[in-house]
Structures are given as structure tokens and as C-alpha cells.
Design goal:
This protein is of the alpha/beta class. The chain has one domain (7-232): Spore Coat Polysaccharide Biosynthesis Protein SpsA, Chain A. The chain has helices spanning 34-43, 60-70, 84-93, 112-125, 167-179, 188-196, 215-232, and strands spanning 7-13, 28-29, 32-33, 50-55, 76-79, 99-104, 127-133, 139-141, 147-150, 157-166, 201-204. The protein is globular. The protein starts with 6 loop residues before the first strand and ends with a helix.
Length: 233
């Protein structure tokens, strides 16, 4: 519970990892798969009442073996869908919390402090997410890869997860996106803002809270894990 709210966490792990070239969730960092390392970020936070992991059908048995049989984690595995929001919707249907966190399965460095701070903002503002101010110039391009403009760096942030929402906002956003056959690449914050009109509060995240997308990201993840091990020693 968090401030009298039942809290559910959904870890989305049904992706295919096409840009990585293999199943990045099964890569080992510091003696633990990315999948287990990520899920443990949430099972270790007492304010979170339940954790649901969305998985693809072909990976269900292996992920169950890693998380439940061998690691003994108190989580439920739910089959995902073809798109991220479809997977998250399946995860949402399997939860009962009135506050819901949604997190990328390939972000294994979310700390309890980050989780609690975005939870706090989610409860206060109904919708919140982690992010960092952009340090690069982001260009807008058309379908032919010609520049059409630039984002104002002073108001550009790079999004992270967890993202936190009141349950009814996610339910409405997911149902509306499915009805509209939503196809754009986006996150849950975009869906909630677009379909409910709710402003999403952004909370400063951390540079270590990376998303492992490419093999180069894996090298950085190993460096982060090593640095944290030394800090804890």
C-alpha cells in the first residue's frame, strides 16, 4: 500500500527484441538475467502489493522457470499482445490496484527511491513518469528523412519508466486505443494524455535507469552494475 492506495506493477516483457538481435531479457548482468533483475526492482519495494509480468506465449515457460521456480518471486505471468499497449492492457486486466505502475522489462536499474518518488507524483497528479532533460538537439523529420524542425531543448525531456497512473485513466486509454486500432509508437503517458486529457507530471529520473535496446546498451549496463556493486561493498 502507498498512502492508502493498493499499488500494482506491470513489467512489460512480451517484446521480441528485434533491434538487439536476440532476447535481451535473457542476457545475464552481474550473474542475473535482465528479466529477473528488472522484476526484482519491484518485488523489493514493500509499497507495491502485486507484480504482473507480461510475456509472449513462446517465452512463458522459460520466464516462469526463471522468476517463479528458481528465483521464488511472488509474481504473476500474463500473456501479452502484438503491441505494447495490448500487452499492458492484458497486464492491467490481471491486476486489482487503484494505482498502477507500468515499467519496461529491459530497464533493470529502477531504484526504490525512483519508484517511490514517481509513485508520490502519480498519487498527487493522477499521472506521472520519470524522465531526464535532453542534452542533445532532437530533430523532427518527415517520412523521407528530411528535417522539418527541431524541439526546443529547454523543454525536451527523455522519457523513462516506471510510469504511474490512476487505474481508471489507464483503463480508458487502453480501451480507446484498441477501439481506434492505435498504431503509433508511443508510451502509456502519451496514451493517457491523448485519450483522457490528463496532464502527466514528469519526475526527474536517473542516468543509470537505462533501457537496454542495443548491444552497446548492454555494455553500459554492465558498467552500471559493476559500479553499484563497488558502491555497496
Amino acid at each position: 500500500m502507498f498512502k492508502s492506495h493498493k499499488v500494482s506493477a506491470i513489467v512489460t516483457s512480451a517484446g521480441k527484441g528485434l533491434r538487439f538481435g536476440s532476447n535481451k531479457l535473457l542476457v545475464t548482468i552481474d550473474g542475473m538475467t535482465v528479466l529477473e533483475k528488472t522484476v526484482r526492482c519491484f518485488t523489493a519495494v514493500p509499497e507495491i502489493d502485486e507484480v504482473v509480468v507480461t510475456v509472449s506465449p513462446e517465452n512463458h515457460d522459460e520466464y516462469h522457470d526463471i522468476l517463479v521456480t528458481r528465483a521464488g518471486l511472488d509474481v504473476r505471468l500474463v500473456l501479452g499482445g502484438a503491441e505494447r499497449h495490448l500487452s499492458a492492457k492484458n497486464g492491467l486486466d490481471a491486476t486489482s490496484g487503484d494505482i498502477v505502475l507500468v515499467h519496461d522489462g529491459v530497464r533493470p536499474f529502477a531504484t526504490p527511491d525512483l519508484i517511490r518518488r514517481v509513485l508520490e507524483a502519480g498519487v498527487e497528479h493522477s499521472a506521472a513518469m520519470l524522465g531526464l532533460p535532453s542534452t542533445v538537439q532532437v530533430k523532427l523529420v518527415d517520412d523521407d528523412e528530411f528535417i522539418t524542425g527541431s524541439l526546443d531543448r529547454a523543454h525536451s525531456w527523455l522519457g523513462q519508466t516506471p510510469q504511474v497512473f490512476r487505474r481508471e485513466l489507464l483503463e480508458h486509454a487502453y480501451s480507446s486505443a484498441i477501439r481506434d486500432d492505435y498504431q503509433r509508437v508511443s508510451d502509456d503517458a502519451d496514451l493517457v494524455a491523448e485519450y483522457t486529457g490528463t496532464r502527466v507530471k514528469i519526475v526527474r529520473g536517473h542516468v543509470d535507469n537505462i533501457k537496454i535496446t542495443t548491444p552497446q546498451d548492454l555494455s553500459l549496463a554492465e558498467m552500471i552494475a559493476e559500479a553499484r556493486d563497488h558502491a555497496d561493498a
